[in-house]
Amino acid sequence: MFSQLGFFGTRVPLYLDVVGVYFALLPFLMFISIRFAIKGDIKKHYISQLFMFIGSLIMVVVFEVGMRLAGGYEEYIKDSTISHSYFITFLIIHIIVAVLTVNLWSYQIISSMKMYKNGELKGKNALRHKKLAKILLIGLFITLIQGTSIYYFLFVM
User: Where do the structural domains in the chain lie, given as residue ranges?
Assistant: First the structure.
């Protein structure tokens, strides 16, 4: 998986295509999960959020292991025409946004489950939950756009 070519017919390793497809599907899965909440099926909403969160963490681990086995981004940037300093700056911003988003997502899952179990996910707490969810969605979209850009920088340019 880490040394095989991917299924898109590019020079991208299989693990990057798998990770890319997962994260490309994530916004659609997220909206399905949100629909569960809107329809009042909180149990399905919580379970789907938990599975997406765990799936995302697994994909990040697969990505990191693959990157380390390949020799890091330096190995991939050799064939790219992008400026190294621009790429590093972009990558650092991507990592910051991604880490903040994952931390917010974990906080949202833990705090919301506690409030739900205690019957406190109503009124002001429900509004706060929705506000944090919107921020989380923005963070996810920014992270996904940045990740797609990095893929483009390293393997298309």
Answer: 14-155
